[in-house]
Amino acid sequence: MLRSAKQDSILRNMKREHYDCIVVGAGPAGLSASLFLARYRHRTVTFHHNSPRNEYSHGVHGFLGHHGIPPAELLARGRAEVKQHGGAIIEASVNAVEQIADQHFLVTASGETFETRRLLIATGLRDLTPQCPGFSEFYGVSVHHCPDCDGYESRDKHIAVLGSGKKIVGFALGFLTWTDRVTLITGGETGDLSEEHRARLASLNIRVLEKSVAALEGDEDAKQLQRVRFTDGELLECEALFFNLGTELASDLHEMLGCKTDEESGLVWVDQTQQTSVEGVYAAGDVTPHSQLAVVAAAEGAMAAIHIHQSLLPTARKL
Ligand SMILES: Cc1cc2nc3c(=O)[nH]c(=O)nc-3n(C[C@H](O)[C@H](O)[C@H](O)COP(=O)(O)OP(=O)(O)OC[C@H]3O[C@@H](n4cnc5c(N)ncnc54)[C@H](O)[C@@H]3O)c2cc1C
User: Fold this and answer.
1) How far apart are CA 297 and CA 302, in angstroms?
2) Model pTM?
3) Residue 233 CA to ligand 1 centre (angstroms)
């Protein structure tokens, strides 16, 4: 990763210092936490490697006051606000974290080691995406994964839903909120649809195509999907496609520290203060088992910062 001479110099000077909190991740969760931590005048540094989950999206929907803002612009504004308050942000990958004593951690970023009393993991998720030609041409504009984020923008359109497994029927039914033209594509997987589910889908006019997708096609300049081409040559005309193929955690830092995961989701378990099962380690945003929205991630980051601040106060200042 290329860093400027100025960032290298900051890294050299920082590495011997002891931080109140290190934040890993500069998406909405990490930046929101960094902003509050800087406002509480804690010594903090935030690391990121510039790969927010929604980098392919054309606009962040439903973020009050910022509806439709390009994701890169939201984050650039956030980074500027953190820096205006004296917070440090470094573009460097965190490769290792280690607990060396109670509430005392070592963080290794791009080969250099830092010490901190608190750690916030805000490293987000990665989406498992369809591996077919055409996907990246339409992703973020007419191909999506999140109905909460992009369902409204697809209202009254013919929506194709791609996925399999137990949750896909509920996922498909959800689109009836916005349109009465929904087709479920299982990608050739047939085993998971029970007779009851098939009957329910049929009763609500949701067609099921148990076929494998060969390609997504449409107007690539406008990033507008127009049809799904199947491996048997059949075409499905549609205007939007939502997929539900699962996600994976973007980092394994929580595993290095032994943080407990939530049984159902596999995400990082946190208590009401955003603290993980390891004292001094907090988590916020998509890594935790709540709604995966930018505005929720930002709120969790703020909550984490407030509780980290409280935990850092000397006993004499607590009542
Ligand atoms: C295509 C798409 C469209 C979306 N649209 C919307 C929408 O319209 N509205 C909405 O509310 N939500 C939307 N979302 C969801 C939203 O993007 C996420 O909920 C939000 O980004 C989560 O924020 P986060 O801070 O938890 O993680 P992220 O934004 O994913 O940020 C993770 C951060 O961690 C850093 N990182 C990861 N690993 C490391 C490491 N080892 N070292 C250093 N840094 C690391 C990354 O560089 C990044 O800075 C969309 C998501 C996608 C994929």
Assistant:
1) 9
2) 0.93
3) 36
